[in-house]
């Protein structure tokens, strides 16, 4: 707004006997102020708000102000959002009669203006005097979950009431149509957004945002645990990729003493085991005998208490000898499990040496989609001759007891920020995110790190790196992927990943877990050394570090701050030799020739890709993830998914036909990730070419 206009507005106020009534008369007679953006009405209103601050005698009180407040209330439901705060401030609506304000909001609600009623309630802080279920139900039916979150944001009691209501709706025996029936004629009604899956996701988001005890929502938590149970049974009895010890640990921690989950466990066991097998697991999980079928209860009576349950089924792919997998080249006595600070300080003396090359990895208990980010249970640091396994929960507990909470973050930040020490990792961003959740003082470590090499960047550059590589020769059901595939290609044998889904918080760690954790960190040293010695044979630039930098995104490059001075080879020397071109990306294709099916957690991505001309099919919220595989096979589409469904879906379609998208990114960033991976070249004519 020009200075001249502002001055003219202020002169106008000064000439008015009653500026508040004058502004109201002007707004009531003008249609300009109803438009979005900075209209003339908006400029005049905000100028009056500023002018009043320098003329404190202007605001009125008593009957005259009440009449003005009554007129303003009638306008608020029609005015644009940017006028709400100035008008509430000018006419002191916070001082108006509360019953009058509640009555006005109730009138808006009865007219079907649910959004306007909620926004006005938030602005005037009326929520404690309203029925949270009544106010929020139509908003959820209109897919306005963000507004619902804002509505309860400042009121812990309302947060609990809302969560209890949502949890009640998620009870399998509850008929959701009882809720939706009164709102059938609702404008912008989106019944597809109102189902148990969507509601349970909202519950978890609210639980995390407002730090509410999950025990408040037993139905949602039980359903999530049931999905975890089904996943564990799939891993154990269908895929056969989980050891009995791991499976038992997770089953016990998932089911606990919950009677309903114990019943679900028994039903699942009956589908996969004989009566004797069910009885053994029921005994181990302390399932009450009255919950068991008669045949199983009889078997339970025959059993003596045993320390270890015999194996129920022998997974066929555990017969493969350990020699088929990567073997640690150091002896067991050089793997150190550290639980005290006396031991740990000796470890840091060795690790924090200039020129040192350190393989870094972390382990945590799988969360299976529960609330909160996973907390690191084990930090592995591998040097050339020994591996240190740091028991982070124990070390943090000891440091806190000694009043030295900053001790651990201090050493970790020293390690990651020292350019003279090369840190090797695989998917470092995920590790550091979990590290920040474990210790809040480490949340900026990723921005400060120097001298790091993330070998995940090598995955798309190494020639011939394919999940089917030598897969049939080994006769293993599941093809290798991720770090295991890289280890197989560079070092000749894959990692044994059977301990990956262990309960890493349980102590003592089993010997298999210790060897797995040490191997995961140590193999990074061997991969890096091999790639530095002979990068050309793997399709990499002769300067490995230059090759890594060249292939990372700008964002990633900024995070890594990686250059050849910062990341020496294991010998401490930079890799020399003639340069070769990196392996070429896939052939470019047009969006019109690119067909995808988006899983139901990626609907925003699907709509974005459709706007760019990509042939997109979207799964509905109620669809099972496996439907994506059916559509992909029938119509020749690529699957776009995320999280646990990726592990299941990728094995049901051809190689390269399933892509895992980062769910924490916005749709635009996800789309860029997909386009870059598949080398889809978007032209101006493609934009909106598929839209009506």
Pick out its properties.
alpha/beta; Nucleotidyltransferase, domain 5; globular; four-stranded parallel β-sheet; Rossmann fold; six-stranded mixed β-sheet; 692 residues; single chain
Write the layout of secondary structure elements.
Layout lengths: L2 H13 L3 H11 L10 H15 L8 H14 L4 H10 L7 H13 L3 H11 L7 H10 L3 H8 L3 H14 L7 H4 L15 H14 L8 H21 L5 H12 L3 H14 L2 H10 L9 H9 L32 E4 L2 H11 L5 E8 L11 E7 L4 E4 L1 H10 L5 H11 L4 E4 L2 H11 L6 H4 L3 E3 L16 H4 L7 H10 L19 H23 L10 H8 L2 H7 L34 E4 L4 H9 L3 E4 L7 H10 L2 E4 L2 H6 L8 E3 L6 H12 L14
Parallel strand pairs: 1-4, 2-5, 5-6, 7-8, 7-9, 9-10
Antiparallel strand pairs: 2-3, 3-4
Helix pairs in contact: 1-3, 2-3, 2-4, 3-5, 6-7, 7-8, 7-9, 8-9, 10-12, 13-14, 13-15, 15-16, 16-17, 24-25, 28-31
Describe this structure in words.
With 692 residues, the protein is an alpha/beta fold. Among the domains are: 220-303, no CATH class; 328-463 and 482-547, Nucleotidyltransferase, domain 5, CATH 3.30.420.10; 591-686, Rossmann fold (3-Layer(aba) Sandwich). The chain is built from 31 helices and ten strands. The strands form two sheets. It has a six-stranded mixed β-sheet, sandwiched between helices. A four-stranded parallel β-sheet has the order 8-7-9-10, with helices on both faces. β9, α30 and β10 (658-660) form a beta-alpha-beta unit. Mean pLDDT is 84; it is low at 304-320, 467-477 and 547-583. Residues 335-536 form the 3'-5' exonuclease domain.
